[in-house]
Amino acid sequence: SKVSRIILAAYQTLEQQAAGKVFKYAETGFKKGGPFPPHKTHQNGTSVDFIVPVLDQNHLSVQLPTQKNNRYGYDIEFDNTGRYAQYHIDFDALGAHLMALHQAAAHEHSKITRVIIDPPYHANLYASKHGAYLKQHVTLQKQKAWVRHDEHYHVDFELDCKPL
C-alpha cells in the first residue's frame, strides 16, 4: 500500500510539473506476492516496472504501443540513443518521473534503492532537466541487467516487508 501511495503521489506531482506528458506503469507483482516469473524481483510489492515515456515524430508525448503481440511492450527494442520506429525516449519526462518518485518515497519515509535502465541511457538521463537531482539522489544500476531495460525501467523501493 505504501508503494501504491508513492506512485499515486508521484503521478499527482507530474500532473502539475509535467502537464501534457504521458506516463505508463507496466507491472508490479501479484496482489498477495510470491514468485513472479520471469522476474527475480517483484515478489513482495517493492518493485515496479514503468514503460519509458516517449515522444512521437511530431515531438508529442504519446503512449508507447503495448499490446499482446509485442509482449505488452517488452519486445520493443530501442537503439542505444533511445529511438524505436517513430518514437524516441523522453528523457526529460523520465527524469521528472524518477524525481517525483524519489520525493514521494521520502514523504512516505521510504527511498528508492535502485533504478534499472539500460546503461547507455544514463548519460541522457543525467543530461536531462533533472539530471543533477538524479545524480545526487537516485542510484542507477551501473551493470547491465539479465534482461535489457530499454523499453521500461525498474524501480526498487526500500520498505519493511514480511519475508516471503
Q: How is the topology of this model organized?
A:
Blueprint: H1 2-17, E1 24-27, E2 47-51, E3 54-55, E4 61-62, E5 83-84, E6 87-89, H2 91-107, E7 111-116, H3 122-126, H4 131-137, E8 152-158
Antiparallel strand pairs: 1-2, 2-8, 3-4, 3-6, 5-6, 7-8
Helix pairs in contact: 1-2, 2-4
Short description:
The chain is an alpha+beta fold and 164 residues long. It contains 4 helices and 8 strands, in the order αββββββαβααβ.
Quick one: how many beta strands?
8
As a whole number of angstroms, the C-alpha radius of gyration is 15 Å
The number of helical runs is 4
Secondary-structure-derived class: alpha+beta
H/E topology pattern: HEEEEEEHEHHE
Poorly predicted regions are none
Mean pLDDT: 88
| N-end to C-end Cα span | 17 Å
What characterizes the major β-sheet?
4 strands, antiparallel
Largest sheet strand order: 1-2-8-7
Strand content: 15-25%
Helix content: 25-40%
Shape type: globular
